[in-house]
Amino acid sequence: MLGLNKKDLSLLLIVAFLALCAPFILNPFPSDSSLAQFNAGYPDLMQRFVIFGIFAIGFNILFGLTGYLSFGHAAFLGVGSYSAVWMFKLLSMNVVPAIVLSVIVAGLFSVVIGFVSLRRSGIYFSILTLAFAQMSFNLAYSVLTPITNGETGLQLTLDDPRILGASRTESGGIPVTNFFGLDMRDTYEMVVGPWAFQFNNGYYLCAILMLISFYLAIRIFRSPFGMMLRAIKSNNTRMTYTGLNARPYTLAAFVISGMYAGLAGGLLASMDPLAGAERMQWTASGEVVLMTILGGAGTLIGPVLGAGFIKYFENIFSKINDGVLHTWFGFMPDGLEDLVVTLVHPFVGKGWHLTLGLVFMLVVIFLPGGLVEGGQRIGRLFRRKKSGDEAKKSTQSTPAE
Amino acid sequence: MDAIILQILNGLDKGSAYALIALGLTLIFGTLGVVNFAHGALFMIGAFCAVTLQRILNISFETIDPTRTDFLGNPMKVKTTYVETWFGPEVGASIIDWAVPLAILFSIPIMIGIGFIMERGLIKHFYKRPHADQILVTFGLAIVLQEVIKFFYGANPIPTGAPDVFKGSFDFGMLLGFEANAIIYPYWRLVYFAFAAVIIGAVFSFLQFTTFGMVVRAGMADRETVGLLGINIDKRFTIMFGIAAAVAGLAGVMYAPINSPNYHMGMDFLVLSFVVVVVGGMGSLPGAVLAGFLLGILESFASMNEIKSIIPGIDQIIIYLVAIIILLTRPRGLMGRKGVMED
Question: Membrane topology for this entry (chain B) (predicted)?
Fold first, then answer.
């Protein structure tokens, strides 16, 4: 079905199931229990899961397949956001033209940047992309203020023309983004006993787009084109000796991943119509690298996992403060409790980045294949216990995608 | 003319910082072949060494002075630092005043120690792994170091003053026969430039004129052969890593009065230093120094109002623009060696 083999199809179906039922799955704890803070089933966070999932899937097409490590992908995300917001300002509040434009503009940008950067490879490529991204960031902050609104960030105002829509609603407010009349902000709440499940229009739009991008990524991975990209990663010199010009292939991969980033940026702006230059900063580029590596570069599901993992823990860890820690460790004797809280304190709340950095280092050192490889190792461990013969085979087999 | 000289001078202090960080980066890259994204963090740690020493020197105890009263009529509490009680008020005060230069001595062992720990504990395991992995793990380390500093020192910049002697500015124009106040330049920046020149000279002469340096240079050229001659090249490269860390740290210590240390200063400088290294040529020490000063001066020229009115925003992007042009026209950089990171 859909031109996929059985394994890929089941993967796609699992992801689709997870994405569409996310409001249930991410909301396992009753809202009145003390564990409710671990719930992630609210629209804002779920949207970020899938949007950054798209971003990471796109990044993985470049980094996972060709091995070119770009440190400037956030530039495309930022460009996408800006163009989407401009579409809201000038044309209408419908998200479709905004998203289409953001993908196109990000694509054009990545053609230019990719054409120049891909003339070099390895560390030089990383630094060139980094330089381009920092250039865009600096320009967005300073000279391009008429377009980007500088430090304040680009926002909707009541005086925007909005040719195909009203510049203000009847009540005099700024109209909200919609999908042919379906407001992105609208949330249907289903209350089942102590649980409150939230179904948000915006989330479902993002989720469906994420599934489409995921499907496209599978097709790219399995296509001759994807094979070619992997060949470039494993030995570019030999590819060149066979008389093949690798650059059009890498450029195509770069542009595709740039367009994915533009889509993510456009969606970010569609959910919350504002765009700031900090989305283009190199720390933001670093974040998508972290997501992809953490999940598992070069695997299909890895980037989505990584994006979800980072965004979830970012949100949860940032909320934990000393009060919460004291209730957790309240069962311990007082002195011990204080000691444990003092020890844990630097890693939670504002210290989330410290935890992230440590986890990231540990992953790069011990699990270069990311969470996916971790899962495979655990799976192999269990299989080995079952029968010795199978274990031998599985260690020899090539790692699954 | 005076404007041009002023811009060159302005470029020198930033250029010195770029040159010092890029020198350390190149040392590490040239010897160990590792791309160290945590080098900016070392620069930042250096700056915080200055902050720490200043805080240590300012540790004080309170005594009650019965002869004076505060505005509420209570006996006044007087804070006296331990340094002042040990060395007498005058010497003590001047020791506190000279905290930043003293931090040079304080920071060298710390930075070399951090360098050793980093190399032996982490980077050693990454020699055989791809460059992407090296970038990623040191990037992670940079985040961790940055967050640790943020945890202990807070997120706000900490003003760290230069000694009183160096406060104020030097009227450079008078010296060259221009009008008074045409070219004024803060003393500390002159000190910084001189300091950078000394450090750069020391590193180069260490490599050029000592046996140790000769072995290291030989190792940079052909590690395997040097190893086969029965020389423990790994140990020497570890020491070079420590020296590179110390150079970055010293650059940070002396930079503290110019720019109040904050936890993300390392990252800000790191990106630019990488650009400097690439422009100078991967693995070329003179190239790194040359490119550092060149880009620093170019940056300050681009921030002149006359130039900004012709090309708006050029001051923000000049360095990156130069890097892109250089990489595309001279892929090895200004003074890059053949065969180093060719692809």
Answer: Multi-pass membrane protein
Q: Counting Cβ atoms within 10 Å, is residue A191 exposed (0-12), middle (13-18) or buried (19+)?
A: exposed
Work out the angle at residue A214's Cα, subtended by the Cα atoms of residues A380 and A118, and round it to the nearest 5 degrees: 95
Among B267, B265, B247, which Cα is nearest to B256's?
Answer: B265
- The tens digit of pLDDT for each residue in A158-184 reads 888 888 777 777 777 788 888 888 888
Residue type, B276: V
Chain A residue numbers touching B143 (CB-CB < 8 A): 353-354, 356-357, 360
State ipTM.
Answer: 0.81
Q: Any bridge partners for residue A200, and if so which?
A: A187
How far, in whole angstroms, is CA B242 from its chain's centroid? 14
Domain enclosing residue B130, as ranges: 2-56+101-329
Please report where in the chains the tokens 């930079």 appear, as a residue.
Answer: B255
Q: pTM of the predicted model, to two decimals?
A: 0.85
Please tell me the predicted confidence (pLDDT) of residue A396.
47
Q: Residues near A327 by Cβ (< 8 Å), separated by ≥ 6? A: A34
Residue B9's CATH number = 1.10.3470
Query: What's CA B318's distance to the chain center, in Å?
Result: 21
pLDDT grade for B338, boundaries at 50, 70 and 90: low
B155 in any annotated domain: yes
Q: pLDDT per residue over A200-239, tens digit each? A: 888 999 999 999 999 999 999 999 999 999 999 888 888 8
Q: What H or E segment, with its residue span, contains residue B192?
A: helix B187-209
B331–A289: do the CB atoms touch at under 8 Å? Answer: no
Residues contacting B143, CB < 8 A, separation 6+:
A353, A354, A356, A357, A360
Question: How many domains, chain B?
Answer: 1
**Farthest CA pair distance, chain A:** 72
Domain borders along chain A are: 6-281
Cα–Cα distance, A364 to B140 (Å, whole number): 9
| CB contacts, 8 Å: A360 with chain B | 136, 139-140, 143
